[in-house]
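Model: Ready when you are.
Researcher: Fold this.
Model:
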Amino acid sequence: MKFNIIGRRYDLTDKIKDYTQKKLSKLDKFFKDESEARVVIGTIKDNDYIEATIYAGGMIYRAEASDREILAAIDKIVDVIERQIRKNKTRLEKKIKRDAALDDMLISGAPYKGGEEEKEFEIVKTKRFTVKPMSSEEAILQMNLLGHSFFVFKNQDTDEMNIVYKRRDGKYAIIESIE
């Protein structure tokens, strides 16, 4: 696994980097191809936090955790991502069928109790709307007027479909498609 470990308002020591790499490397058993991990470690108020995003086999796994001790937060991240992989095992089976043998123990040593029963996705509503070209600022205004957390629009500058959404930190972001 390739690692990109970043510290935000946090002094990253070699011990923390090594511990993070050691713990996340245990997830390699689930992936056939080379995976890549982007890890951000920082401090918010009195807690340390970690955000980990793993890109592997065309899938993206992401988790966040915070704790008074960064090592405990790292352990939480590994368990959360492993649960994501196991929960989606049947959906991912075609991609990672021969990549790993899933056993009954989590990396932390705790027994895996099994996920929820696999349910089909249920679409309860379909909306259709006309899309007019607009700027990203106008799309944000429209989204806020509607009271939604995201808004689909045609970018007047690029003539492509974009999505603007409100992040947890209160700022805005745009999703652009790449062909």
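Researcher: Now this one.
Model:
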Amino acid sequence: MIKALIFDMDGVVTDTEYYDHQVQLDFIESLGGHATDEETAGLIGKSYDDFYNSISEFLPGTYTTEEVEEMFDKFSEEKYRDLDYRPLFREDIVDVLKFAKANNVKLAMASSSTKKHVEEVLEQCGILNYFDVIISGEMFESSKPNPDIYLYTLKELDVSAKEAVTVEDSYYGIKAATSAGIYTFGYRETRLPVDQSRADKMIDGMTDLLDELRRYRSKDKGSL
């Protein structure tokens, strides 16, 4: 029986992955660099340090990780300052969350974003109180694709990997979850060339996920 459901946030709960990608491209171009969607698709889902190191490859000149971090944080702060996450919120997740609560399935968020940011977004979308555990990649020396964030989340939820499922969209997130031994639904991304091939099963929306959860519950099996 499924005892826990773990979500990534960006690109899953909120349709922000594409917006984030455009901000990254704008940042690169603002410094005189150039990159295509194909070249920068690998940035999606990376931990902060890996992201800063990788994005510098598209910039003219030589920058330290600290310099890139400072410049990008300042640039992105302007882009996100007045961003309303509600239009980007995948509202059909509420039915999934209600189903989980009604069936005593624990809920967790495991995101590479900072905990403060995750809580702010979930609060803005009106679903913060549904989650039993919120885990941030900033808590670990190495975030996704390292499976530690998921192994820690399982420990906090007091469930085994076989008793949990997760929803991810990025290559790094999917790799982290599957490496932790968790059955992983890949939230299909069609706008960017993201490698989602490691996912156990693809879904096209939260309605698909709810259907899957209902089917597993009706079978009353201990594993997927």
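Researcher: Key takeaway?
Model: The longest helix spans residues 65-80.
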